[in-house]
Design a protein that fits this description.
Helix-turn-helix domain-containing protein; 2 domains; 6-stranded mixed β-sheet; Rossmann fold; about 50% helix; 10 strands; DJ-1/PfpI; alpha/beta; transcription; Arc Repressor Mutant, subunit A; Class_I_gatase-like; two-stranded antiparallel sheet; transcription regulation
């Protein structure tokens, strides 16, 4: 029976790379490339968030926020708080807070000056626990708002901010499950669902769940730069579609190694924005160059304008989806931002001198032969 042991089987072929080794090396190289975009000395974290937990808070909201910050904070995967930092606070940090799953979390310290943070976030608990305010928590949130520190309501944290009058006349992001009850309780707040978050300047609200990763990534982008946000998305395996990981997407496109760090950053941003509209001007703003300079960089390296490169990249991803997914041509076209299927087919033919249907038929013939 020992002959079937996987380790012994691998040792019989010392020259053969283990399955998946190329994926792992590519993933490590991608992170190394991102980390190499910014080698400046770090004197203090670029992003600091203070966190207040309500009884029966959802673990996913806390974990999503902290894990996003953790990946953006360090270089490599060493859990060093260099670019980002976070602090969980309570009146008495010796008392653990029980989550809705029954897992308890012990705060790091007592409430500290809100001005020490870029944001103060409150993660609300089950609705039945909202009236069980931790000692000093509401006063601390008001103190943060009065000091001009942006406050974030995560999950039912929006209820808490509304109760404190911090959402009066504003928009608020709610999970659909809580939307009706919130509207009944706070008719003076414009509550919306089916969004990841709403940024209303000095007050932000987030639906919770995996939506917190979207909000955290945006805050990381603003304070630490798009390279840190890209690393976060990659490390947390946030996919551009439900059944494809960012690493798979990168392999489908062919990650481009270029010398200019601004151009590398621009390419990474394009690869991470395949299913949402971006413009050359937005791209130029993110990498801190003028639109004319960005066009020059793309022309010198790729012989294309930024807009053409974005379109070509999406078409390449579309071709990969045709070959590797079960989505229809129409679904792929709409996912990639084309106005309709006909537009996608016409542009695809111009780029590859073939049609999406022909690519799908070739895949079907190949599958039949392999079967």
């Amino acid at each position: 029976m020992d002959r079937d042991h996987p380790m012994k089987a691998a040792n019989r072929h010392p020259g053969r790379k283990p399955a998946g080794s190329a994926d792992r090396s590519h993933g490590r190289k991608l992170v190394d490339d991102i980390d190499g975009l910014d080698a400046r000395p770090i004197l203090r974290p670029d992003l600091k968030i203070g966190v207040v937990l309500w009884p029966e808070f959802p673990l996913m909201s806390l974990a999503g926020l902290v894990e996003a910050l953790r990946h953006a904070a360090d270089f490599g995967d060493n859990s060093q708080r260099r670019r980002c930092d976070w602090t969980i606070m309570a009146h008495d940090p010796s008392l653990s807070v029980r989550s809705s799953a029954g897992v308890t979390v012990r705060p790091d310290r007592s409430y500290q000056d809100p001005a020490d943070f870029d944001y103060v976030a409150v993660i609300g608990g089950l609705l039945r626990s909202l009236s069980s305010a931790p000692e000093g928590a509401r006063a601390y949130l008001r103190r943060a708002a009065e000091a001009g520190v942006p406050v974030i309501g995560i999950c039912t944290g929006s209820f808490i901010l509304a109760e404190e009058g911090l959402l009066d006349g504003r928009r608020a992001c709610l999970h659909a499950y809580h939307l009706e009850e919130f509207r009944e309780s706070f008719p003076h707040v414009r509550a919306e669902a089916n969004l990841d978050y709403i940024d209303d300047g000095d007050v932000l609200t987030c639906a919770g769940g995996i939506s917190i990763i979207s909000l955290a990534s945006e805050l990381i982008r603003r304070h630490c730069g798009p390279d840190r946000a890209t690393k976060t998305i990659h490390q947390m395996s946030v996919a551009n579609r439900a059944d494809a990981t960012p690493l798979t997407v990168t392999q489908a496109l062919g990650y481009t190694r270029v010398a200019d760090p601004r151009l590398r950053r621009a390419v990474l941003l394009i690869e991470q924005s395949l299913v949402r509209p971006i413009s050359p001007q937005w791209l130029a703003d993110q990498v801190h160059v003028s639109r004319r300079q960005l066009s020059r960089l793309f022309a010198e390296e790729f012989g294309q304008s930024p807009g053409a490169f974005i379109r070509t990249t999406r078409l390449r991803y579309g071709r990969w989806l045709l070959q590797n997914s079960s989505e229809s041509v129409t679904e792929i076209a709409l996912r990639l931002g084309f106005s309709d299927c006909a537009h996608f087919i016409r542009t695809f033919r111009q780029e590859f001198d073939t049609t999406p249907g022909a690519v799908r038929e070739a895949r079907a013939r190949s599958d039949k032969v392999m079967a």
